[in-house]
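Objective 1b. Sequence-to-structure analysis of Peroxiredoxin.
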Amino acid sequence: MRHAYRSILRHGLALLLALCAAHALAGTVAPAEGLWRGEFTVNGEALPFNFELAGLEGAQPRLVLLNGSRRDEFEVEKLAGGGIRAVMNTYDAALEATVEEGSGGKRLVGHYRDLVPKRNGANDLPFTAEHGQAWRFVPPERDAGSAANLDGKWAILNRDRSAGPNQVALLRQEGTRLTGVFMTVVGDTRELEGVVQGDRFWLSHFSGPSPVLVRGTIEDGQIQGAISFGIYNVARFEGHRSDEVELPDPYRLTYLKDGRRSIDFSFPDLEGRPVSLRDDKYRGKVVIVEVIGTWCPNCTDQTRFLAPWFRENRQRGVEAIAVAFEQEDSFEYFQQRLRKFRDFFDIRYDIVHGGVADKKLATEKLQGLNYMAAFPTTIVIDRRGEVREIYTGFTGPVTGGYYEEYVARFNALMDELLAEPDPYAATAGQ
């Protein structure tokens, strides 16, 4: 009798909890699907971004970040209470948000979470978002028109000595809408989107890694302003239109030390096995060494190019190795991040652990280089094991002709090197 009573009590309690949970969920308001306008506050400035929520009622809910013509898609996890969470694919960060009470699913309040363990959320950014807003900096009814047209190529000069190298900006203006990209010797900002209003302009970008904000003024055909990279740094600049301006040659920034023809290293792969250029796997092959970090957006763009290229060409006598320098000097962290990176991009070549993300350390570990100037850096090695080319940084598709020139030169070099005879073929059977 006592056992039966306990059983009834236990089942009754379970039913009560289920009913309470159902009641709570019934009162939950989910975010509305469609277009949203989000806004970070970075260094005291509003940094807007646009995104779309779709499929929230289905099996594959997703968030799409919008930047000009660029689309970056992320899976969405629905949280209790109507919240959502979107991990930024291969970046160790996530967008988390809840519906503001009383908004009917039309307003979100959340954070951009930094998931790197050692930082413990030190770089988190709060944000709010409004549903149904497709504008970025200025709503259509408040568009005041532009006093200048910024269309063209610009020489960007840094006014802060610590701000790094000078840049080139490629801008396109249609009415008051402004898009473009800022390029440096180490890569580019990805596609920026913004507006010109009177003698002022704004641009922003957010596609998963740290958000970017550019703001400035226009006077006598020249511009000046500041560019912010997340919460890390702000650099002041001035610029003038120039069709002739170019960045330093990316093929000459990193080179071999005097007397060297090759590089050397030995790093563990994802399973802990040592990988070296001296391994039989690479003997007589053309080898592409890709120095990257999963935290680096230009590295991600470079991998987005190389991974499919390698899948299509691997039978031609080419191998590749990605040497990853990560945000934590931990092999376990490397395994976690790079397995996800490998699967996301369907990488079919070796990935090895270089260490913590530090240019000086990378220079020391990649024996033979004068200096690792940037992540990413691509090193091409011929069938004899000699370095034939080193390319610093990466200019993505948004840079137009610069990207097309890189792809054409890369393919021409690979065709040339793969056409060379394997110097070890005669002894392969001995």
